[in-house]
Amino acid sequence: MTLGCKVNQYESEAVSELFSKKGYINVEDNEENADIYIINTCTVTNLSDRKSRQVIRRVKRNNPDAIVAVMGCYSQVAPENVAKIEGVDIIIGTSERNEIVDLCETFEKEKKQLNTVRSLKGDHCFQDISTKSTPGMTRAYMKVQDGCNRFCSYCIIPYARGPIRSRTLEDSVAEAKALSEAGYKEIILTGIHVGSYGYDLGNTRLIDLIEKIAEIENIRRIRLSSIEQGIITEDFMKRALNTGKVCDHFHLSLQSGSNRTLKNMNRKYTKEEFFEKTELIRSYMPLAGLTTDIITGFPGESDQDFKESYDFVEKVGFSRIHIFKYSKRQGTVAASMPNQVDGNIKIERSDVMSELNERLMKEFAEKNANLKKSLLVEEEIEKGKFLGYTTNYIRCLVNSDEPLKNKIVDVELKEFDKDILRAKLV
Predict the structure, then answer these.
(1) Strand, coil or helix: 355
(2) 159 SS3 class
(3) What end-to-end distance do the CA atoms of the chain give, in Å?
(4) Please, what is the Cα angle at 251 between 333 and 223, to 5 degrees?
(5) What is the pLDDT of residue 63?
(6) Are 45 and 73 in contact (CB under 8 A)?
(7) How far is CA 336 from CA 74, 299, 328, 341, in A?
(8) Residue 389 and which of 275, 291, 300, 400 are 20 to 30 A apart at CA?
(9) Could you tell me if 411 and 373 are in contact, meaning their C-beta atoms sit under 8 angstroms apart?
């Protein structure tokens, strides 16, 4: 069971494969019949911690005799709290996950709680854990980086994940080839701070990895998960465009369009620097989808700060915004900052930003209307109706009498309906 981000989902799938190799059967669709429960936790907010605890207690009620192993970010930052939850047998943090099968088998013999959580401060190597498939998915996530050195004032993740560690170029390319052989046409490069890939490997950088993966013939698309604006340079954009495979979609994590708030968040850029990078992207990829994250109600955010943030988001013209109301996370600098924003104000600001998001999504869709686009079909939602994403991350519905799942087809985009563009095959 997985809570949290795409990295967690990737790691859960990799752990599932470790069990499969030892002859275990995944019964995720029949939770009550499991003999072993693996809960991969999230700790990004206090609410995430609470959800993790609720899931742990629920699975133990389902099957009191089952082994319960808790891993991930929450167990990394609060192993003592996890160990106190009734029924927890094994505690693993964000390292040693490749030992999880042996740990479960050891517990089965000894019936004694096992706790392998350790400090990550001295970690310098990427943990070798990978997956060759993502069941039910036509796009494959591939983790190439772990850890973060940024220490934003609201974020617990550097404490949960440790310093940046990059997967070697050779190992990353090997997994990409395996995913290609498994039939995947699009790879999404992911990590905790994927833009820092290679900084611990010497002269290697993320664009070097992208170029190597682009050489794999059957990989048709390379998409990036969340990155920060600093990675966008003339050299990066030229080389990315030259591969012919990098999707014209960039998720640039903004968090706020107010310079004062950005400074309080300990973000390493100004809104002016961020805007320059969005303009650089569009100079190479004019219809690139630009998505982002925005936090409303950060401590000290005034009405003027919020207006500045709103106006900046509108100026950039993002294609989609993921909006989060600030939530305290104990153990972070922001949790003890003065001038915490009232909860009702957070909701109001979030609602206002959501209305802007709806308008910007519609405007972006209209810019793409009547254009020919490449669509990777992901699922058939009902007979003859298929959903997929364009390279610039527009969700499209297309009709066809022929099966289209996992095919890349050319479509012409038509009318916008809520968050989906209707398209027709061309």
Answers:
(1) helix
(2) helix
(3) 41
(4) 130
(5) 83
(6) no
(7) 20, 9, 9, 12
(8) 275
(9) yes
